[in-house]
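As a representative case, the lines below give one protein's residues and fold tokens.
***
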Amino acid sequence: MSRDDLTGVQKAAMLLIALGPEKSATIFKQLKEDEIETLTLEIANTRSVSAKMKEDVLNEFYEVCLAQQYIAEGGITYAKDLLEKALGSEKAVNVINKLTASLQVRPFEFVRKTDASQLLNFIQDEHPQTIALILAYLPSGQAANIVASLPPEKQADVAKRIAVMDRTSPDVIKEVERVLERKLSSLVNQDYTIIGGVDAIVDILNTVDRGTEKHIMENLEIDEPELADEIRRKMFVFEDIMSLDDRAIQRVLRDVDNNDLATALKGANEEVQSVIFRNMSKRLVAMIQEDMEFMGPVRLKDVEEAQQKIVNIIRKLEDSAEIVISRGGGDEIIV
């Protein structure tokens, strides 16, 4: 897949992944709520980005930004002249055309460069009306190849539905496009090196302000509950307790069961143990250490469950504004 095969949303998601969580969090603050939700889903579903694709998307972003700056300064002609000097004549024309092209895009434009056999795999089990709608907007040659490959019992039905098709609601077309585009975006056909996906969006959500994070997660819980659960489990891991200040750690420890704490620390590194122990009384430290020693080997599952209980307490205390998890974006504490 080349850069030209990607949708705008896919390119934007790759750009945010490439820029990293802090810069992406800053960009999120400038976007509308529906744009944030769309990009969040796309980043989560972008499992990997090749090094070349990353470079291509960054270059395109730079070129478009440059063109927009020149257009703002002196108009299209001025921008074209400067871009020709900076990028060459052919590339300058391409960039200008992208910025000045009509916003009216033919439905299912992204499908036109998809291999017919791949497209068939994704639509052959759809309702005949949906197949007919998609094929009606494709070039006749591409549509013919797909019709010929459909099961015989569907061929006539789809052909009839195309023939009698008159007008289709823009909302219906947009929804079918959205579903199909998402299915096609899952195609993986090359060696990838830079990982996106859930970890990428977790990094961003851990960096944005709490209000933006809560809004995104509340919407994901409605639209994509399984994805929301996966993201939430990764957002604040037990080792991140080291990012809390001493006062917050002490507040957390007041709500933690001592047995859970001993089990959780059994699987923690020395640095985490040290941070927690320095916020406890010497008597309690000695008691917890004694519990850890006498409990013997502990199953990893039990350690993870105990650590997750503590993480849940931390998130609950943050929700009630009793502690603050530093995320950037205005969460710095002023004493």
Q: What stands out?
A: The chain has 18 helices and two strands.
